[in-house]
Amino acid sequence: MHDLYTLIHKIKKAPSMYLGRHSIICLQAFLSGYSVAKHELGEQPTKQDSDFMSFPEWIRKRFNVQTSQSWANIILFYSEDESKALDQFFELLDEFIDRNSSTDTLREGELDIGEKLPAHH
Hints:
The protein is an all-alpha fold. The protein has helices spanning 4-13, 15-19, 24-40, 47-52, 55-62, 71-77, 82-101. It has one domain. Helix content is 60%, strand content 0%. Helix 3 packs antiparallel against helix 6 (71-77) and helix 6 crosses helix 7 (82-101).
């Protein structure tokens, strides 16, 4: 699979199928494994992979914190539990992706995650 945001959208629809349980920590482990596997296979990062690399810094700014904690731990800290933190992650990711829709950094075909993003005409 080469489309990170589509993969995350699939996880959102059936988190237990991909993660084992509804947990932001499980998602973080899954995405780390995904990244390592792509690297081990010699695949170059896609534009979405590169874009997602700025997600941790965006999360720090979004929550106005300066910490070396992971994006998952930051979201978890501000959530009731791992399950609610996972739900919050999906909302934050939509917000993160939407920041690009006006700058046209990633084109429509490269950001196909379903109904969330408006079509560019």
